[in-house]
Amino acid sequence: MFLRDDNVPLIRPYLMAVQHLNIEAVNDAYNDLLIEEEDFKTLRHSIDSFDNFNNVSLASRLEKHELLEFRRLAAHLYKKNTKWEESITLSKQDKLFKDAIITAAVSASSEVAEDLLTYFVDIGNKECFAAMLYACFDLLRSDVVMELSWQHGLNDFYMPYRIQNQRSLVDKLTKLEKEVKEHAKKVTVKEEAEAEVPIINPGIGGKLLLTQGPSGGAPPIYMNGTGMMPPVGHIETVRWRTILTLVSLPS
């Protein structure tokens, strides 16, 4: 009802009181009110704090606004929604090059960063070219930067980047070399430890289990009830007696 009758300003205190609930209808109404009042600072705080609204729709609406700060908010919304090209294009149109550089750095995309770097070279903005080399250092490929610098006479702006890039390369190689040496050392220690372990268990007391005799305890008990093997003749006599006894038993 308030929206239909254009009485939203009357419920401004209510909208501010309940916006922490992050309700889409409340956010839309409050953002519309701020746009109507041209309060871009409060609008930026609102869209950063409460995101339950159609971000792209609001950005499309703001990019056509007559005030620069609202168009800047449109680029900010595009950036928040990972629409890098739309955000950078809008920033370039308004010559907000700092915002464009920040967006390229946040994108974490080499393609986006290199496209913007090429744009600065094409328009002859050497300062922004140097700023890009600093802000997007990890995203820019060194061969691309070197080629652009050589073709357009930007060696003075390129040299600090080249020095830093060379230093980073040396640091990475040093770190890699250290890791390789540590790994090789661990492998060597492991191989030496494995080489010292015998293939066959030496057994108890250093005697091989295959040749080790009885290590103590009671001797085996044989048929004569002693711990000694009976003579061979005695065994034969016992065997014949057993056979005769079995034969003489009644069937």
TrEMBL record:
Recorded superkingdom: Eukaryota
CHCR repeats: 1-129
A Pfam match: Clathrin
GO molecular function, one term: clathrin light chain binding
Cited Gene3D superfamilies: 1.25.40.730, Tetratricopeptide repeat domain (1.25.40.10)
Alphabetical list of InterPro entries matching this protein: ARM-type_fold, CHCR, Clathrin_H-chain/VPS_repeat, TPR-like_helical_dom_sf
GO CC annotations, alphabetized: actin cortical patch; clathrin complex; cytosol
Coiled coil stretches, renumbered: 166-193
Keywords of the record: Coiled coil
GO biological process, one term: intracellular protein transport
UniProt-recorded name of the protein: Clathrin heavy chain linker core motif domain-containing protein
Organism annotation: Tulasnella calospora MUT 4182
